[in-house]
Amino acid sequence: MNDFSRIIIKVGTNTLTGAEDRLDERYLSHLVAQICSAAQNGEVALVTSGAIRTGLTALGLAASRSLRESQAAAAVGQGLLMHHYQRQFQNHGRLVAQVLLTNDAMHNRNRYLNARNTLLTLFEQRVIPIINENDTVATDEIKFGDNDNLAAQVAVMVGADLLIFLSDVDGFYRDHNTKQILPVVEHLTPELEMAAQGPASEKSKGGMTTKIAGAKVATHCGCHVFIAGGRRENVITDILDGENVGTHFLPTRLREGSRKAWIGFSGKVAGELTIDAGAIAALRQQGTSLLPAGITAAGGDFKTGDVVRVVSATGEEIGRGLTNYSAAEINRIKGIHSRLLEQILGYRGDPEVIHRDNFLIYHSLASAA
Ligand code: GLU
Fold it and tell me: 12 by DSSP, 3-state: which?
């Protein structure tokens, strides 16, 4: 048995419904039985799609034609979905909790911590959190867009050590024609990411691209990730038993602290700093703080304490951090030595623009999700 203590399982709409347009009760009961068995030795949360499809079916609509229709369908379907899960989990003596998130809850540090504390408390209480996007209120600006991204964000937020994407494909194919599954991915290279860009199935939002993007984020935060066929019998149990199932993405980094993970992957980005090659080398090789001397440009209208993206001259994302200075201030101090700060600004500020403790540097990523 593999030693995973905190597990996030994501199941997509197509897997839940199979060939039909409605929830497949038999499948749901298998899924729930496996989750409950995993929850005997660890903490498990389920990220589930299916609200919109279930709602549309209940309303007798074939497909939503507008945003308001899918939001209304989600409002109908989410309740039905929870009802089914609640009944199934109850058969195993388990309580469930509904947790609906939007991306702006992730962007804002206080709301993020609230959501995190709620989930950790539910784990303590041995309750299974059942998580979905709050589709009814989610407009474009605050949308996760897809539950693959949501699941990866949740995995990072609670410091999960395993994230399983249960999908309608059996794993990650290097080549769509041969349908050969890659059993293990040690590093998500740009070539592999390209290979993921096959078409999403007609009914699903994400497809492979969003799963790979999610895997990239989670593995960077020390989490193991699997993409596996959700309808494979005992898929979760087999993964936990260490059997060869689907594609296993190995963590590329040790677990990041929760605060740094938030800065790097969840916090709302308010602007951008461009830095020179010397600063990039120092950051990557020594994990130093970012000083004004290495900055060549500041873009956006950000304030002290905001999350900013740090990029190279060619636009490659190097990392993200909390800035000690606003955009206007950085435009005055960029390129200068820290000892001249007081003279230029007229007050004594921090010598660093981004302190190393507030800086997440992407090592193996070309860019973050
Ligand atoms: N939140 C949507 C639903 O429950 C699904 C989004 C997705 O599958 O990515 O219907």
Answer: coil
